[in-house]
Specification:
2 copies of one chain form a homodimer. By secondary structure, chain A is of the alpha/beta class. Chain A contains 20 helices and 25 strands. Chain A has a 9-stranded mixed sheet with strand order 14-15-16-13-9-12-11-10-17. The relative contact order of chain A is 0.08.
């Protein structure tokens, strides 16, 4: 499809926006009027810049408060339109968006609206321009696409058609099924927007909180497929009013935007595949998303000194050193099915991350059947492939760059639990020290600390590239501000990430961010089968846990029916507790390593499917009191 | 009155909150349960800490989902209550807040609710504790204070009373008049909250956007007077859920909180004065707010080098140097009625500001009848007085410290236009250079750049200390994020400030802030009688203005009926235009001085009462394109 984006969706000056849009591979733009009004150049100059970048101006927008007006205002608006048509001719924009009237002067008279739009279309036709009429969700008399379509039908002019915007339909919970009945050629333009479900005034919601398809909660694919069923063949465009996007570096936003369209097309293609409809447009067809089956390893960036400190730390956690890399200053640790890699190789990718962010996680390994196909999917979805230097007899582990710069490696399931490590490492175990193993079994989840403007980026990346689905979004009280927390996981729950955003600059999460950069791993949660036994062993190894107030346990007893013995065991061990209808979650947090990264030990009982987030305030308050 | 505040209103650990609350002069606290649950200490230890700080725990809160429940849940809740009563006894909290039930299990049966609350009160009475019942605006069956009062009446227990919260009543637009009919002794506790008027779900509004009385849009004084008319004599408390307060340094929040109560009491006292009611509580009675009659001067902090640069700048603006300070390295400039003071005195307050923030405004002078009374008002409202060293024969100009650290000087009207300057300065005018005067007459407004968490602080400060009233709150698009802008002015409009907040870290406003600190002057707007003549003279003097795109004028012509000649004059001169029903506003912005401070030249026509804010995006976009 012809892929387009409204300039209002990005930060920057108009020229910077155009450059970012072109670099992300778009075909065209919707020109938001304010961007042109404040542009220091003529319409003709803009036409040249846009053409030089290989873009087209597909739509000039918006034209407001036009239809259903008393005669004097209508006449004046026609004059206004002629002046905008002058500009559109000069800049080469073939279509104007006329949104439904919000003026208190507007009359509830569809026939009048149709007649006035007919006149506007007639004026446009004289210059070979087209007019698209769109129902705003907060339009005074026209708020539904069905109403707008009735008016367009009645106006009956070849230069007048309908513009659809998923936000206006889905925000009002209007049924998009009727769109399939509209003749495709009368749909002149399509704007796709997603949004989180928010209980607020629809105008405020629309102006501040839209997001790219795949970042929100709407069934945007369902909407899009109805438009395709109608036989629409025009541009697929994004018009996103979002306070955060207004300040996010626009190169990243533009990549997110393109990824969202590619994802939307591929999802719609799948949904339509069963129908075998007459294919009127070509939808993006990437390799299918790879089914991930688990986290294979976590890699830490270090230098020589911090590698020693990490050695102490992970041994306290019950890990054993089991190998050294064949060609690099890289050490492998293991416990249960968990592999930790400490990479202190000079001049490596890891060393670069260490120099920028200190001791930190620089890569995750995920298991899947076909790593090369997984990387193809990722690059098709506009992620960058990363190739590390490979020594003789070592395996090439394909990797992609995640937002923020860390790597995701794809490890072939066919290698089994040890194949990768046998190839790349000289396995030479420590002498097994009795009692050191603490019973940690798998990586339960990896929690990331993100800057506010990275959350939507990560939701879309994990969905489109890794096939994970987001869960509930929670807000948690740190003593110095709110934390927003959202889990993303695969269907089998063998890969779980938690995306944490500090809304405040003053929380520990935010301060960690400022040290480690956005997209950093904030903590790592490891599973065990008996948290009391594991915690006792870890304590014996020298691991220190964040102490939990006695008052927490007194309150817990009033909230949840627990055996007194279990409750007292938790109190004695400092273990936190959460219960859902599906099961229980027992967990405990270690103190931070160098003031940043820490670990969580967790035991899942039954089908508990969350992350004990409601206990995070107990941890954060405890850390703040130290 | 006994002044109290809920711990949830402040950032920090519980101990830090208590210290801030005590330092601000509060008498007591409402203990928010989560603060206690995460506190590392027992209830008895907390009692000691609170007592050592001279505070009382007036309320333990909240106790949820109690009334109108099926028998098993009711029995379990009674057990839960007994455990909370244990804690309350240990910590010395005499009352618990029971908020109306939000559980889906709750039954719509006021008689049952009353019976169950009676039982709870009976349990409380055995320990000499009290229960206050509060209607939450989103309570399942009880959302209005009238409903809650009916249930309390029906329960008829001396240890059960009503808790009122202005937010729950005013957010639902319920009429508070009925409160005056409730027996005062049955109102057990009063929580006062203000809020901006937001079109959103009331629960989200309540949890994230409450503010202190005087910071929002509610008629909190009207609500409070109804409670006083009822004969209420209990604590006056604040329970403010606000995302920004959660991250704001709590010492500042606590001062704002105390100021808001003092302001509320003094406003209510005035409103009740006419009624001469039987005075049952003593309301705060500060000196009345001083009527300001204009801005007398603006003082710039500089060193020797930047004083020279400023000299060039203000001469380009048409100012003449008219005097040198008798004892300090301070220079006076004048044009029309505008006085600029450049303070380069070493070891002065100004030099301290210069060293911290660079060349910047460090003080404003405002005119009023009685400067000492104005300072008394300010200090009564918890602002700090500032006394500068005074040389022989110089006038002492009383001053207070504004939020962020700049000074507000109060200049006696009796001094006339020149009295202050004749006393303190050796007037020795430059030779009047023909043509230098540009026709600037008065200070139109001073615009401040504030950090996000300073806006509410400034609204309350300007209201309670300076008697200014806030206008509409606008959001303006900078190319790198949104700016929130709100004017505050006195009734006569002779003193106007504009409070600008960047919601993004990446706008020019935010970058200026990071240089000059919060609460800095962002730009200074100066009035003239003929903007074209003034702009021409300023250009001739060497002043450079921010260029405005031609496209702005093309669009302006489509929006507003303007004489073509005026429009072309504006285009040629780069003058911006705004029209309201009351009048017109013509204005132009200078380029920034050292990348920060700039000036605006403005001409008001008719009774135009705003600041041309909708043209700010044209300025911001132009600056970004340079």
């Amino acid at each position: 499809m012809h892929r387009s984006i409204a300039t209002v969706s990005l930060s920057g000056t108009l020229r910077q926006k155009l450059e970012a849009v072109a670099a992300a591979g778009f075909d065209g733009i919707e020109l938001f009027e304010a961007d042109f009004i404040n542009f220091k150049g003529t319409a003709t100059e803009l036409r040249g810049i846009v053409a030089d970048l290989g873009l087209s101006i597909d739509l000039y927008q918006p034209f407001r408060d036009f239809e259903g007006m008393p005669e004097p205002q209508f006449r004046r608006s026609l004059e206004r339109a002629e002046r905008k048509f002058d500009l559109m001719e000069a800049m080469g924009a073939p279509m104007v968006l006329c949104c439904s009237n919000t003026s208190p002067l507007a009359m509830d008279d569809p026939a009048l609206a149709a007649a006035q739009l007919h006149e506007l279309a007639e004026r446009a036709a004289r210059r070979n321009l087209r007019v698209g009429f769109e129902a705003l969700a907060w339009g005074r008399h026209t708020s539904l696409y069905g109403q707008a379509w009735d008016i367009v039908k009645q106006a009956d002019h070849p230069h007048l058609g309908l513009i659809l915007d998923s936000f206006h339909t889905l925000s009002l919970k209007d049924d998009p099924a009727g769109i399939a009945e509209i003749p495709g050629e009368k749909i002149f333009f399509l704007q796709m927007a997603d949004a989180p479900l928010l209980a607020m005034d629809v105008l405020q919601w629309a102006r501040h909180h839209r997001s790219f398809p795949g970042q929100g909660d709407f069934d945007v694919t369902g909407f899009f497929t109805q438009v395709l069923r109608a036989g629409y063949t025009g541009p697929l465009s994004l018009e996103i009013f979002n306070d955060i996007f207004r300040e996010t570096p626009n190169r990243r936003t533009a990549v997110d935007a393109m990824r969202s369209l590619l994802y939307l097309e591929s999802e719609a293609r799948q949904r339509l595949a069963a129908e075998q409809p007459q294919q009127r447009v070509e939808l993006f067809n990437p390799p299918p998303v790879a089914a991930l089956s688990g986290l294979s390893f976590i890699e830490f960036a270090a230098d020589e000194a911090s590698a020693l400190a990490l050695d102490t730390l992970v041994r306290q956690l019950g890990f054993r050193r089991i190998g050294k890399h064949r060609s690099k200053a890289v050490t492998l640790y293991r416990q249960g099915e968990i592999n930790f890699i400490v990479n202190a190789q000079p001049d490596s990718f890891a060393r670069g991350r260490f120099e920028a962010h200190g001791t930190s996680v620089c890569a995750l390994g995920v298991r899947c059947a076909d790593p090369l196909a997984a990387v193809e999917r990722a690059t098709a979805m506009r992620s960058k492939r990363h190739d590390s230097p490979v020594g003789p007899n070592e395996l090439r582990v394909p990797a992609v760059v995640a937002p923020g710069g860390n790597l995701i490696h794809f490890v072939a399931e066919s290698l089994g639990a040890n194949g990768l490590y046998e190839a790349d490492f000289i396995l030479e175990e420590d002498a097994p020290t009795a009692g050191n193993d603490a019973g940690l079994q798998q990586i339960d989840h990896v929690a990331l600390g993100l800057a506010l403007d990275q959350l939507d980026t990560w939701v879309l990346f994990t969905r489109a590239v890794l096939g994970l689905e987001p869960g509930e979004s929670l807000e948690l009280a740190d003593p110095f501000g709110l934390i927003r927390s959202r889990g993303v996981a695969n269907a089998e729950r063998s890969v779980r990430l938690v995306l944490n955003v500090s809304l405040s600059q003053r929380t520990r999460t935010a301060r960690t961010l400022s040290v480690t950069g956005g997209g950093a791993v904030h903590h790592i949660a490891l599973n065990c089968e008996d948290i009391f036994e594991t915690a006792a062993k870890l304590r014996a190894n020298g691991t220190r846990f964040v102490p939990i107030s006695d008052n927490y346990y007194d309150d817990l007893a009033t909230r949840i029916d627990l055996a007194p013995e279990l409750q007292e065991r938790m109190r004695a061990a400092g273990v936190l507790f959460d219960r859902s209808p599906a099961g229980d979650y027992l967990h405990i947090y270690t103190e931070s390593f160098e003031g940043g990264l820490f670990f969580e030990v967790a035991q899942r009982i039954g089908a508990y499917d969350a992350y004990g987030a409601l206990n995070a305030p107990a941890r954060m308050a405890s850390q703040a009191q130290d």
